[in-house]
Amino acid sequence: MRSRRVSTALGSAAALALALTACGTADVGGDGGEGGGDGIVIGVKYDQPGIGLLEGDAPVGFDVDVATYIAGELGYSPDQIEWKEAASANREAFLQQGTVDMIVATYSITDERRQVVDFAGPYYVAQQDILTQAGDEEIGAPDDLADKVLCSASGSRSAHNIVEDMEIDAELREAGNYSECLQLLTDGTVDAVTTDNIILAGFAAQNPDDYRMVNNAFGEERLGVGLPEGSTERCEEVNAAITKMWDEGKTVEFLEAHFGETDFAYQESAPEFDTCE
């Protein structure tokens, strides 16, 4: 039986074998409020296995299930949701320009981002980890990245956390998204990729013979629902939906559906919310 740490701090992920067994849309809440129109546009990732991955003409994954549940609580049925790919570099612009109504795309809550967008949640708290090629045993912790080439996905802060905040002298190589980072890692152009452990778990599980997850988690990544600036009322509505999702056991159900066949020690307790402002 897998053991999991039941706290807001995640344990490390172990050897993985992901099975994307869940359907693309989650159960929606039955007591949702009135929808704000004919539909809702939600930004999610299209390139992250287990989180948000385009299969056919619709995305599937944990974030997709979370977004579908929240939309249901806001009064929108699954067929009223329009999905929009939200790459890390596009998230703030999409919210500012009205391209999407909300973003559920492994979107870490930071003070810098709060200057231009609002956040509800967090709906999940992850930690940061490192991914290397399968045969690379030299890298076992952030300090081992000194003088190594580290992939930085455009719009993500993860690699900068290591270079700037932890002051580790790694060389950053920027890519458009994490799929491109994985290709650079496969080619040997970079030595490692770093981001949320829940994201790396999906990639490692999809290609267990190619990649090795270091399993030495550090820091904390509070994943929130991105909203346009000034969305205080909607923020409170989304927080109520997230609370209900945890209380009903739906969050753990979604995590189990996408990571249940792995040894990933996902969080099983609801995180504390920030105040909607």
UniProtKB/TrEMBL annotation:
Full protein name: Glutamate transport system substrate-binding protein
Keywords attached to this entry: Signal, Transport
GO terms, biological process: amino acid transport
Residue stretches in coiled coil: none
Gene3D superfamilies to which the protein is assigned, alphabetical: Periplasmic binding protein-like II
Family: Belongs to the bacterial solute-binding protein 3 family.
Residue stretches making up the Solute-binding protein family 3/N-terminal domain: 39-262
GO cellular component, one term: extracellular region
InterPro entries: Bact_solute-bind_prot3, Solute-binding_3/MltF_N
Leader sequence segment: 1-26
Biological source species: Nocardiopsis algeriensis
CDD domains reported in the protein's UniProt record: PBP2_GluB
